[in-house]
Amino acid sequence: MHRGDLQLSRRTVLTTAAASALVAFTAPAAPAAGAASVSSGHPRRVPETVSLPAGFRPEGITSGPGLTFYVGSVADGRIATGSLRTGAVRNLLPGATGRSLRGLFWDRRTGLVWAVGSVGDVGHVWAVNGRSGAVVSDTVVPGAKFLNDLVVTRDRVWVTDSMVDRLTWIRLGPRGRPTGTPARSCACVVPGRPATGSPSTATAYGDCQTVHSCSTTVGWADCGE
Questions:
Q1: In this structure, are residues 170 and 156 in contact, taking their beta carbons and an 8 Å threshold?
Q2: Residues sharing a CB contact under 8 Å with residue 152, sequence separation 6 or more, in sequence order
Q3: Which pLDDT tens digit goes with each residue over 168-225?
Q4: Average pLDDT over residues 115-129
Q5: What are 48-84's pLDDT values in tens digits?
Q6: Are 146 and 161 in contact (CB under 8 A)?
Q7: Which of 61, 190, 214, 224 is the most buried (most CB within 10 A)?
Q8: Cα distance between residue 103 and residue 110, in whole Å
Q9: pLDDT in the model for residue 47
C-alpha cells in the first residue's frame, strides 16, 4: 500500500467514526422495555380547576404528600382529599350534622390532618388519618367562640380564635403524635402590645411559650407548662 493510500484510509476511517458518533449523540434514545413513550400520546395537562361536590362550601386547605391536597367543609365538617395533578377527589372524613371545619394543617411526620372547627357551639380540634380518614384524636376547647386557624410545631398544635384574643395549644408527644392532654389557652400580654390571636404575630412579640402569662379555665399559669 502506498503512503498516500494509507493516509487516505486513515482519514476515511476517522471521518466515518466522527459521523457515527454525531449521529449516536443527536439521535433520540430508544425507550427502555416497558417504559411509556412520551411522544406517542398527548402530554398530560394539570387541571385548571378542581371541582368539589355541590354544596361543599370549602374553607381550610392544606397540601399533603406530593400533589395531594386536603380541604375542609364549613357546611357539614367533611374533609375531601384529591390530586392537583389529575383533579380526582374523594371524601376522606364524612360530614356530620352540626359540624363545621375551618383551618387544616397536614403534618408530614405523622401523616395526620389537623382540623379546627366546631360542633354546634363547642370548639374542637381533630387529628385525622390522612389515608384512612379515621379520627385519631378529638380535643374540646373550653370557652371557644370561633376557632379559625392552626399551625403545628415540634411539640404543640397552636390554634387561633377569631372571637377571643388568645391562643390555644395542645401538647404533642414524640414525633408529633397526639397525647390526649387537654387544650390550654393563653392570652399573650406584652407591655405596650395588644393581645393577639395570631400564631405568627405572637412569635414576633416574643412567643407565648417563653414569656408572659396565660389565662386558663382554672386560673393563671405559665404558657410554657
A1: yes
A2: 105, 107, 114, 158, 172, 176
A3: 999 999 999 999 999 998 775 545 544 444 444 433 333 444 333 444 333 333 455 5
A4: 98
A5: 899 999 999 999 999 999 999 999 999 999 999 999 9
A6: yes
A7: 214
A8: 18
A9: 86
Listed in sequence order, the residues at least 6 apart from 92 whose beta carbon sits closer than 8 Å to its beta carbon are 70, 78, 79, 80, 81, 113, 128, 130, 133
Work out the average pLDDT over 154-173: 93
What does DSSP assign to residue 65?
S
Rounded to a whole number of angstroms, the distance between the first and last alpha carbons of the chain is 96
> Can you tell me the distance from the alpha carbon of 116 to that of 148, in angstroms, rounded to the nearest whole number?
7
Distances in whole angstroms, Cα of residue 34 to Cα of each of 28, 30, 37, 43, 81: 17, 11, 9, 18, 31
Dist CA 147 CA 119 (whole Å): 11
Q: Which residue has the higher pLDDT, 85 or 15?
A: 85
C-alpha cell at 98: 352540626
SS3 67: coil
